[in-house]
Amino acid sequence: MSDNIEDKNLIKKISQGDEGAFRALFDQYYQSLLSLSFYFLKSRELAEEVVADVFYAIWLKKESLNKVNDIKNYLYISTKNQALLYIRKSPFIDKQPIDLYTINIASEESDPETKLLDKEYQKIIQEAILSLPEKCREVFRLFLSEKLKHKEIAQILNISEKTVEAHITTAYKRIASYVNKEYSKEKNINKMLSIFF
Questions:
Q1: In whole angstroms, what separates CA 136 from the centre of its chain?
Q2: DSSP 3-state helix, strand, coil percentages of the chain (rounded to 5)?
Q3: What is the pTM of this model?
Q4: Cα separation, 175 vs 178, whole angstroms
Q5: Could you tell me the pLDDT band of residue 2, with boundaries at 50, 70 and 90?
Q6: Mean pLDDT of 127-154
Q7: What's the whole-number mean pLDDT along residues 112-132?
Q8: Which domains does the chain have, with CATH numbers?
Q9: CA of 162: how far to CAs of 40, 72, 116, 134, in Å?
Q10: Which of 44, 59, 177, 187 has the lowest tally of Cβ within 10 angstroms?
Q11: What is the DSSP letter of 64?
Q12: What is the DSSP string of 69-131?
């Protein structure tokens, strides 16, 4: 709820021409929108262009931005639509692999050994996420990292809410299975899985 209030304050300032507020909005959503754009385009360069286009369009029509009720959803839908427009315009899109699915795990301990273990946990979880099928991975990222609701994910990816739920369930099961293969000690497994639950 507080995020929504913060977004509305930013939108109000942007609609009045506040460049600082616009930059804050850009910084807040850039990486998420880049990831979403990359999901459709498979090109870092084109994904960056799409996000730049979306924010440029927002600045151009900033005076009418107050009419937008949910800027987060608006940004995601705009990015999706712009990416699809790029696909229609450019049938030959270079595929440039890039990791946009990193999840940072904050260490609760300060000793070097624990920090090293936390890095290892993060690596295993990252590998598990990357092993997911592409659609499942994107649904899971939008759900876990972007904190989007099932309905919002369904709208962005043009799938049903039941499909979103199925992908999230599959993701949890496959990640747990992957982690189980990598680690046999129950303590380690529980620590890593606690990241998600």
A1: 13
A2: 75, 0, 25
A3: 0.63
A4: 5
A5: low
A6: 88
A7: 72
A8: 2-89 (1.10.1740.10), 112-193 (1.10.10.10)
A9: 21, 22, 39, 17
A10: 187
A11: G
A12: S-HHHHHHHHHHHHHHHHHHH-S----------------S--SHHHHHHHHHHHHHHHHHHHT
